[in-house]
Amino acid sequence: MPSFDITSEVNKVELRNAVDQANKEIQNRFDFKGSDARIEQNELVLTLYADDDFKLKQVMDLFQNKCSKRGVDLRALDVKGLERIGTKVKQLVN
Fold first, then answer.
1. Is 86 left (phi over 0), alpha (psi -120 to 50) or beta?
2. pLDDT tier at 79 (50, 70, 90 boundaries)?
3. 93: CB partners within 8 A, 6+ apart
4. Closest alpha carbon to 62 in 42, 78, 39
């Protein structure tokens, strides 16, 4: 009886491109001027930083938009809970 295994992997190059494009747009947007909003990537673990919950939601929406345009499946991203760091917030995405 023949069998097959299905594996699915995220394209690391396209993920990196989506992170870079999102960071560039964050730097250029007026509503993020003077804020510490950014996305950091360590292999397939992403960390989103922002000043407050609202800006973090905007960063996540912007990143998801860039991922969908680059062909990265959003179902592959595992979004973790929100963490507070003093007055700032961060969120992990695996």
1. left
2. very high
3. 45, 46, 47, 48, 77, 78, 79, 80
4. 39
